[in-house]
Records
---
Amino acid sequence: MHTFVDVLHWLTTASHWSGSTGIPARVGEHLELSVVSVGLASAVAIPTGLFVGHIRKYEFLAVSFVNVGRSVPSFAILVLAYLAFLQLAPSLAFGFGPTVVALFLLALPPIVTNTYVGVQTVDTDTVEAARGMGMTERDVLLRLELPLAAPLMMAGLRTAAVTAVATATLAALIGGGGLGRFIIDGFHTNDIPMVVSGAVLVAILSILTEASFGLVERAVRPRTTSKGPHRGPGFARRVRPLA
């Protein structure tokens, strides 16, 4: 209970909500890392997933390639990227660059997998019927398969975004910003309320990200029923099936 009161006091202290090291600034840095990494991953993963799902080939190759980011620990990727940036671009080595690389590789697998699976689950007969109506392969992909696969694609993006937000705290280990600074700085100064507050803020941001993408996922879900005017209980009895 004492720790809870200290955390509440830390979060409600006015000085922690202002300046370049305040909570709003750290949240902005955290979101910047997450948005950039997931955006770059989407730019690579979505076209790849659409292509693999549409032609229904190379699934094993694509999944094996993108799963590198999942099989190698994020901290190991961060360290290797940090060392590479120190040699190639020292100005980006502290925080932003290596963290974006690690989060990018971490976000690839769910987006690629959900995208190609979503396209492949579109009924084959429906696809063939669209081709029989004269639709080009581009039209089949963009006007039929993509809309039907959108909910599953959004689920992959939601997983990638939440994972990125939760993992972006690693940036603080190499001198970067974000909410992880509260956790790392709190450990260095033995400030337990700061450590717990940083963890609470990361958890809240992850939950908000999950909820936001969940709403978008529901919005892009294709409607399977249509709402017409109310006909009354006797309407169904008056309708006869066509011979």
Note: DSSP finds eleven helices and no strands in the chain.
---
Amino acid sequence: MSKAKEFEQRLERTEHQLGLLQKISRCMVRDMRLQDALNRVVTLVVEFMDCDSCLLYVVDGNQLVLRATNSSHPAAVGEVKLALSEGLTGWVAREKRLLSISREAYRDPRFKFFSDLPEDTYEAFLSAPVISRRGVEGVINVQHRNPHAHTGMEMELLTTVGEQIGCLLMLSRAEAKSTSEMPDLVLSSGVPRAPGS
């Protein structure tokens, strides 16, 4: 392959990556329900990474609760829960580190099996912590049915998406707190405003 062609492909991938991050940023600033924003982010990640599964877990107390997925099992949302000490997902949350397994993820000794999730049989597993300045807010997992060697770009991208989702969750919690404490200071869009403005 010529250097010019290689450069064109790299530029195209970079533009595609930037487009994904811009779309996720728009989920953070638009007036939309948190659940809709999380669902949208999962859909965007699946489209961009061409993966078979994307699962987004959010910390709730000392558990990780499945809050969004592209899976054909929507009933699992809110029902699948992991202790922070369980599974590959729990490990990522505890260690605050990216985890990449290119094949036979289900054989990893940290793996936890859920009989109602078909993703348990998928080969490749890429997981990043969802973090904000408050700490770990959750975990996002990307899975492929077949073995898949994750590229550095995919790992960096999922890490950045995890940071964006972390900011979205932190903002959502701050907004919920401010609206419960000062309901008369909130515009219809949900953006707090100062008294007299």
Note: DSSP finds four helices and six strands in the chain.
